[in-house]
Structures are given as C-alpha cells and as structure tokens.
C-alpha cells in the first residue's frame, strides 16, 4: 500500500510537468504583443507595448521562456499577478481560504445529502418520493448557478435583508482592522479563526455570510450525486442477493442500508471525489454574485486579462488536487470494496 | 401543529419588521462605495487609471486642484496661491511657474511638508517613469520629451540632468523651468502623478535617494517592483487604513489634517463586480453609492431614496477610418482588392468613402435608442467642456448623400464592384456595437453589393490589433488626461497622435496647427488655432464622432456635498467633500 502511494506521488511530478508544458504552450499561442498588452489598460499606455515585450523577453523562443519561468518557480517566485496586484504565491493564500471555507461547509452537505436523497429515491422507485426527488435533481442540475444565486440573493437579501453578501459584516471587519492584536488570522477562514480566537460572534457572522453561497452551490451540485446514488441503488436492489435476502425474510432496513447502499456507494465516491476536487477551483458564479473573492473569481478575472502567472499557478494547483483526489479515491475504493487490493 | 404555526407567523413578522427598518441612515460616519475598479498600485509614478487616482487623490495632495466643477479653474491646495500671469506666478514668456508652498501641512506619518518635498516628488516620479505609466505628461511639459528612454528602451543621454534642472526650491517657493511654453501644465499638475511625497519617508522606503548621478538605477521599475506599491503617506484628510486587493480599501480620517476637518470618519470602497449585488446593496443602504453602468440607469431611476447626478465626462468615442490597412493575412479586408470580395488597404484614403460613412450614421436615433437621450453627441474631438470648443457642422444622416458619395468613390468602382469588409468593436461594449451595426446596416442598404460584417474583439487584442493597422474601421474612445484641447486634438488628428498615427492620417496643415496649439500661450491665438482644427475635422471627414458619455452617479439621499466635475469619472469620490445626514 505504502509503495503504491509513493509511486503515485512520484507520478505527480510527471503530471505537473505535462500540465505546465501544455498550459505554457497554449499561452504561447498568444502573440508577444497580446501578452504585453496584459500590462496596459488604456490606449494612452499602449505606446509602451514594444518596450514591455523587450523588458519581459516575450519574443524569445518557447523553450527559453519556459526554462526562465521554471527557474523562477524553483527560486520560489511564481510571478506577479496583475489582477491581484500581489505576488502570485501571496495572492493565492489570500483567495484560497475563501474558496476552501465554502467547500468545507458545502462538500459534506453535497455528499451526505446526495447519498441520502439518492438512497431514498432508489428505495421508493416510481413512487411520489422518487418523482419528487428526480424533479428536484433535474431542476437543480439544469438551473444555472448564476441565476439561482441571484434569485436567492434577491429574495433573502433584497427583500428580507438577511444574509448580506461578502465574507463578514462591516462592523466586525472594522473591529478586526482596529484590533489586529486581538484577532489572529490562523487559517484565513473567519468561521474557524473566530472559534480559535474565542470570538463566536465573528464565527457566527461569517457562517451567516456562508448560508446563501453554500445553498446555491449545494442545490445545483447535489443533483448529480443524488442521481448516481439512485441508479446504483436501483441496480443493487434488483440483484439476486437482495432478492434472496428478501425471500429469507431479512429486515428491509438492513438489506437497504447495510448491503445495497454500501455496494451502490462505489460510483458515488468517484463522482463525489471529482466534485470536491473541481470545487477547489471555486465556483465563479457563486463567488461573483456573493462578492466572495476566491479562487474561482481570481481564475475568471485572470483568464479574461491573460494574467499568465496566475493561470499557470491555478492549473498546477488543480493538477495536484486531482492527483491527490484520485489517490484518495483509490484508497477509499479498497476500504469500501474489500475485493480491491492496491499493489 | 398550532405551536408550529405561531412560530412561523412570528418569524415572518420579524422578517417584515427588519424590512421596514431601512429608512434610517446606516453607519452615519462611514461612507461605503460599491465599485468594481481594479486597484493596481498606490505609487503615483505608476498609477494611470481612474481607480488608482481616486485612492491617491484622497491620500495625497497636489499643489493645485480643480475648483469645484471647473476643469480649467484651480484652487490652491499645497500651494498657497494659484500662479497666473497677473500675479506674476507665470512668467510673461510662459516658461517659468512659481508656487509658494503651504506651511504647517503634515504627512500622515508625522513629517512636515517642505518645498524640498515638492521638488523631490516631481523629480522622483519623472526619474522612475515606468513603461505604461503617466509620467509622459510631466516629462513632455518640463523636459520637452515624452519619456526618459528612446524607442529601444535606452535611457536618453542627459535626460536626468534636464529633470534635475527643471524644478528647484528657493526659500518657501518651488519654481518650474519649462523648455517652451506649455499651456496644459496647470491641468497636469492636478493629476495623481503630481501629488507630493515626504522626501525622507520615500527614500527610506527605497525610492530614488536624491542623488541625480544614481537616477538610472531607479528608472523604469518592473510592474510590482515600484517601492510605493502598497504603502502611502500623504498630507490629505484621509489615510489608508487597509487595502485588500480586489476586496476592499478602507480610508480613515487623518486627525492632523491642516485644513477643515472632514465629516466622515471612515470610507470603505468595496469591490462588487455583479450589478444585481451592487443594486441590492444600494437599495438596502449597505452602500451609499454604487457604480452604475449606462444600461442600468433606468433601474436606478426607478428606485426610491436616491439622489442622482448626471455628469458629462471629458471623453469621446469615435469610429476611425484606417487609411493604410495592413494587408498581410488580414481577414478584415477580404481579398484586399476592390473586386467585390474585399477592400484595398487604402480604401478610406478616398474622402468620398469617408463622407459616405459619415452620412450613414443616424445621430438622433443613436442618441434616443442607445442612450435614452442621456448622452452628448460630439461634433468633433474637442468635446463640450474643453476650452475653445465649438459646435462644428456635422454630416447629417442622409442616405441619398451617402449613396452619391459612394458612387463618386474610387472613380465609380466602389459602386460598380461593391466591397466586403469588417467593422470591429471591443467585446462587451454595447454602445459601440450598436454604432457599428448601424453603420453596417445603413451602408449595406445603399447597394446589395456592399457587404459589411460587425465583429467584436477582446479589449487587449483590440489594443494590439488597431496598432497593427489591422482594422479598416475601428471604434475606440479617449478619456482626458488633462482638460486641454491638446490632449484630444493632437491624439485624434496629428499624424503622430495615438489615433492619428493608426488611422495613417497625414495632413501637414493639421500637424502644424496641432504643434502650434501647444506652443501658444495667448488664449486668443489658441482659440483661433483650435477653431480651425475643429473646422478641419469636418472638411477632412477624419472620423465619425459617436458619443461623449454622461455618467449617472447614484447616491443614497442621505449623502450630501457631492460636487460634479467632468474630469472625475464615476470611479472617483472626493471624500472630503461629502457627508451623511
């Protein structure tokens, strides 16, 4: 098992190299002028484009630019983010906690709620419960996150003045700014930092700001998990061992929960794992609508402004996340299905 | 069941009660602006966008600033008096400007303002002169050159000595020596690149050390390496409390301010990109002002509890004819020949073609349908609000005249063979898209052989491609750097102007007049020059003037004191002017 894990981590190096060459190559398809234009915003500044090309060596051959970039990465310099007005590394640690905080609350709900809903739907196949959950799944999956987030914001914030956008209320933000010695930013996540600093009011306020973003995300994403779980349950419930168990008079609850659900979980684990991994790149719609500047927002802004160091950084990060997620899933498979052995 | 119903009823009652609370002034000593501008730097020598200028203008102070709504009248700020020809502050030959410096002003970190700080600030910013920055304005005025480097990026010999000599302190005065008269200088001194730094503080933070021999070392810092990127220390009424990139910027009142104490204690600028979110924040009183893009104006007009201001800006957008299109692999001109499947690279060098396009633009419909009347239709590049503006004749919308000019164009070949081309605008700009579509539709209605397609191009690509002479007809705008006709007329009409060059437009008389305009200080003579240039704009059919924007600023009605100024865009907010009650 240990050898398997080590081998997979060694493979990570090659994966990251491949990702970096691919993304760098794609970005190189933009002309040097276009890449230099990322540094200018107005027609007044455009006169300096030729000098910017020279300054950054944007006309050098691909391999020279790639090696130069790699050398800087090994020196710990990931470049400068035009969008964030900060070094990429520093900016990453400012935006990532915002995305991670939302996922910490959203991911368990997506997984557990999806499994429960799928199980219920599968067990009660072709009943009103099944129809209801299926409609919920279709609506949820086909609803654009952006639209759904806006509707929630209009109802709860616009009309009821509850759950304002942002990550924390102005009053508490000013308190933290005025008293930096009284509030340590351990993780960059206010819900956790609030608890660690003994300030439950801050943790609860941050939690209140998370309600609508988490809800918008969960409703849209949970549908996929639920549908996979439902299909799995229906398939398992029609298998011979379930029919035999039923014929022998075994308890229905035990058949559903202990036997059928466990076997149906395997594909769900794959889907849920991929969903969690994907969620690490943030939800652009949710972050934009609820003014939570996280990785998703940063990625979208950087893509439109061709902020190359950021695009490279996020692609590499996502490469790491997916490799680790797949590894975790493989280990989980072995745990769920003892027939699978990792060698 | 009964108990449950009671709980639900109470919950709804509480929710409705909270809804009815929003008539009260929220956060009376804090101003909140929801905006979406990206703040890139706090270094005055690098900042060249409206968002950065807004921060700098509230933290630092220049020698003089716009007086109320005037763009050409100034009030003293760190100078005690505005220099004029009458008070002797400006010499008769227009080459020496003398400012008396205010005493008693303090920087946020405790330093006292001195004339040496003023001299240092100007020299330091000009020495740094980063690529893509705003320093060309001061360099052009004070040294006669628009950059410290030549076309190849090499430092121009002797430029730092020229900078060293162009500004000096004498007693409590600071004197600027110009190589030639430069009338827009007073306007440039308002810009955020002309704010005053604390010399000792700046040096301690890694700025130029004051030794002119070492100036080259501090020239052209790379993006992100400017010493004052994240820090600020000015003399103005507000200091920076906090800056979280793309999240928020917090100003705090500076209690040691030399002038009248501003009423607001704190101001928060929040980054909110989504319009619906901004709108709801304004509606709920969680923002005192939000940025309103033109398409959302009807929505804010329908909202209650707001005060709206309509502010024309010193800006203009036009459709430019490129007279020397780059034919190499250029899909925008089809076959590159006048054979019905393209246009030749010099298609627009025939004035008849240009006039045909000008007569095909329906100004009235455009104003009514696209802007709901909330726009100024410019007649030339010298827009309303600029000195020496006059309404020149325009090419009225007349498709018969348009047809007549097309028939005359290229000796009748255009009408006989037809043509095919592409009009481009930058992605997401609906006003420009509407203008491009209108021109295309109207020209195509003249003759079935005329085929025009409208395409959008992402902004950064757009910047690169129009400079590569790739667009036959491109739509682009200009916002004033300073309020002087030179900033517009030279840009649009001179063969070396930012747009004149890329239209490949060349007219010796126009070039001569543009150059004379900047070297003449007598207002009457300048007026004559700029009036002539505006007449030439019409007779030469240089471009299609499209619109001069009017921005709508939406404040909660409890915000008082806002003073509109055409030079300050909606990204700006001068905090010392406003209060809440």
A few lines on this structure:
The complex is a heterodimer of chains A (343) and B (581). Chain A is mainly alpha-helical and 343 residues long. Chain A contains 15 helices and two strands.
Helical residue percent band of chain B: 25-40%
- Return the average pLDDT of chain A rounded to an integer: 87
Model regions low in confidence, pLDDT < 50 over at least 5 residues of chain B: 11-22
* Broad shape of chain A: globular
Biggest protein-protein interface? Answer: A-B, 57 and 62 residues
Strand count of chain A:
2
Q: Given the helix and strand composition of chain B, which structural class is it?
A: alpha+beta
The total of helices of chain B stands at 18
CA-CA gap between termini of chain B: 48 Å
Task: Characterize the largest beta sheet of chain B: strand count, sense, and whether it forms a barrel.
Answer: 12 strands, mixed
Report the sheet-strand fraction of chain B: 15-25%
Largest sheet of chain A: 2 strands, antiparallel
Radius of gyration of chain A: 24 Å
Main attributes of the structure:
A: 343 residues, 15 helices, globular, B: 581 residues, alpha+beta, 12-stranded mixed beta sheet
How would you portray this structure in words?
The complex is a heterodimer of chains A (343) and B (581). Chain A has 343 residues and is mainly alpha-helical. In chain A, 74% of the residues lie in helices and 1% in strands. Chain A has helices at residues 2-28, 32-36, 49-56, 62-74, 88-123, 128-142, 145-159, 170-178, 190-196, 200-237, 240-247, 252-279, 284-289, 295-305, 308-336; strands spanning 80-81, 86-87. In chain A, helix 7 packs across helix 10. The longest helix of chain A is centred in the middle third of the chain and has 38 residues, at 200-237. Chain B is an alpha+beta fold and 581 residues long. Chain B has helices spanning 2-19, 50-59, 115-128, 136-143, 159-166, 185-188, 199-204, 275-283, 297-301, 351-359, 363-371, 399-408, 413-417, 430-444, 459-467, 485-493, 508-519, 523-539; strands at 30-35, 64-66, 74-76, 96-100, 167-170, 173-177, 238-244, 248-253, 266-271, 289-290, 306-312, 315-321, 375-376, 419-426, 450-457, 473-479, 543-556, 559-560, 579-580. In chain B, the strands form 4 sheets. In chain B, strands 1, 7, 8, 9, 10, 11, 12, 13, 14, 15, 16 and 17 form a 12-stranded mixed β-sheet that branches. Chain B has a 3-stranded antiparallel β-sheet with strand order 4-6-5. In chain B, strand 14 (419-426), helix 14 (430-444) and strand 15 (450-457) form a beta-alpha-beta unit. In chain B, helix 10 runs antiparallel to helix 12 and helix 17 (508-519) packs antiparallel against helix 18 (523-539). The longest helix of chain B is centred in the N-terminal third of the chain and has 18 residues, at 2-19. Classes of the chains: A mainly alpha (343), B alpha+beta (581). The interface between A and B is large, with 57 and 62 residues.
């Amino acid at each position: 098992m240990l050898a398997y894990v080590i081998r997979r981590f060694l493979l990570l190096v090659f994966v990251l190299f491949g990702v970096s060459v691919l993304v760098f190559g794609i970005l190189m398809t933009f002309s040097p002028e276009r890449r230099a234009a990322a540094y200018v915003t107005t027609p007044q500044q455009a006169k300096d484009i030729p000098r910017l090309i020279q300054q950054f060596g944007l006309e050098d051959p691909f391999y020279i630019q790639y090696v130069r970039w790699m050398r800087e990465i090994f020196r710990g310099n990931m470049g400068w983010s035009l969008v964030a007005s900060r070094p990429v590394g520093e900016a990453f640690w400012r935006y990532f906690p915002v995305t991670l905080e939302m996922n910490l609350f959203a991911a368990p709900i997506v997984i557990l709620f999806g499994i429960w809903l799928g199980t219920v739907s599968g067990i009660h196949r072709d009943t009103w419960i099944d129809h209801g959950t299926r409609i919920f799944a279709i609506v949820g999956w086909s609803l654009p996150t952006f639209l759904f987030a806006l509707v929630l914001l209009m109802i709860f914030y616009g009309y009821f003045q509850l759950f304002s956008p942002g990550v924390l209320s102005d009053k508490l933000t000013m308190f933290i700014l005025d008293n930096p010695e009284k509030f340590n930013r351990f993780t960059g996540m206010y819900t956790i930092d609030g608890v660690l600093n003994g300030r439950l009011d801050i943790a609860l306020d941050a939690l209140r700001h998370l309600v609508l973003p988490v809800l918008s995300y969960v409703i849209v994403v949970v549908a996929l998990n639920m549908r996979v779980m439902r299909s799995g349950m229906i398939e398992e419930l029609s298998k011979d061992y379930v029919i035999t168990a039923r014929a022998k008079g075994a308890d229905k609850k035990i058949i559903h929960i202990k036997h059928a659900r466990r076997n149906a979980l395997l594909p769900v684990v794959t889907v849920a794992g991929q969903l969690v991994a994907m969620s690490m790149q943030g939800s652009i719609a949710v972050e934009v609508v609820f003014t939570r500047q996280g990785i998703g927002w940063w990625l979208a802004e950087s893509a439109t402004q061709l902020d190359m160091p950021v695009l490279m950084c996020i692609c590499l990060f996502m490469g790491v996340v997916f490799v680790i997620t797949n590894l975790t899933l493989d280990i989980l498979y072995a745990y769920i299905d003892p027939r699978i052995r990792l060698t | 069941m009964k108990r449950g119903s009671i709980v639900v009823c109470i919950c709804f009652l509480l929710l409705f009660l909270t809804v009815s609370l929003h008539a009260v002034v929220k956060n009376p000593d804090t101003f909140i602006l929801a905006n979406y501008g990206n703040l890139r730097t706090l270094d005055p020598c690098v900042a060249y966008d409206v968002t950065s200028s807004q921060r700098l203008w509230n933290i630092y102070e220049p020698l003089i600033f716009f007086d109320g709504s005037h763009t050409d009248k100034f009030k003293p700020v760190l100078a005690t008096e505005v220099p004029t020809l009458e008070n002797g502050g400006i010499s008769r030959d227009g080459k020496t400007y003398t400012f008396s410096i205010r005493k008693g002003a303090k920087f946020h970190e405790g330093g006292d303002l001195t004339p040496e700080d003023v001299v240092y600030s100007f020299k330091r910013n000009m020495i740094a002169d980063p690529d893509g920055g705003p320093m060309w304005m001061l360099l052009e005025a004070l040294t006669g050159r628009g950059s410290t480097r030549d076309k190849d990026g090499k430092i121009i010999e002797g430029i730092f000595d020229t900078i060293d000599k162009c500004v000096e302190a004498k007693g409590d005065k600071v004197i600027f020596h110009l190589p030639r008269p430069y009338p827009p200088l007073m306007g440039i001194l308002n810009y955020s690149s002309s704010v005053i730094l604390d010399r000792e503080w700046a040096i301690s933070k890694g700025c130029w050390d004051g030794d002119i021999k070492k100036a080259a070392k501090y020239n052209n810092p790379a993006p992100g390496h400017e010493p004052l990127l994240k820090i600020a220390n000015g003399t103005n009424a507000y200091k920076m409390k906090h800056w979280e990139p793309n999240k928020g910027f917090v100003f705090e009142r500076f209690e040691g301010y030399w002038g009248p104490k501003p009423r607001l204690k704190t101001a928060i600028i929040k980054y909110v990109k989504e319009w619906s979110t901004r709108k709801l924040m304004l509606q709920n009183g969680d923002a005192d002002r939000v940025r309103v893009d033109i398409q959302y104006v009807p929505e804010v007009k329908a909202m209650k509890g707001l005060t709206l201001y309509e502010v024309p800006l010193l800006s203009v957008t036009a459709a430019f004819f490129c007279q020397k299109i780059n034919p190499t692999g250029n899909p925008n001109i089809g076959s590159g020949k006048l054979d019905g499947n393209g246009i030749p690279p010099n298609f627009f060098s025939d004035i008849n073609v240009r006039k045909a396009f000008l007569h095909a633009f329906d100004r009235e419909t455009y104003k009514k349908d696209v802007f709901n009347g909330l726009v100024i239709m410019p007649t030339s590049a010298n827009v309303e609000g600029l000195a020496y503006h006059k309404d020149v004749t325009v090419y009225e919308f007349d498709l018969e005249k348009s047809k007549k000019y097309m028939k005359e164009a290229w000796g009748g070949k255009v009408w006989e063979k037809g043509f095919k081309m592409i009009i481009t605008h930058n992605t997401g700009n609906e006003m420009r898209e509407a203008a491009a579509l209108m021109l295309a539709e109207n020209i195509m209605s003249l003759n079935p052989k005329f085929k025009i397609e409208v395409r959008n191009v992402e902004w950064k690509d757009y910047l690169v491609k129009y400079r590569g002479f790739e667009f036959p007809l491109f739509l682009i705008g200009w916002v004033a750097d300073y309020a002087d006709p030179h900033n517009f007329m030279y840009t649009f009409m001179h063969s070396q102007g930012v747009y004149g060059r890329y239209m490949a437009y060349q007219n010796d008389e126009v070039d001569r007049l543009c150059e004379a305009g900047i070297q003449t200080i007598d207002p009457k003579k300048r007026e004559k020059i700029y009036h002539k240039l505006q007449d030439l704009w019409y007779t030469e059919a240089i471009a299609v003037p499209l619109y001069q924007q009017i921005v709508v600023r939406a404040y909660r009605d409890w915000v008082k004191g806002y003073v509109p100024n055409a030079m300050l865009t909606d990204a700006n907010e001068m905090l010392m002017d406003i209060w809440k009650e």
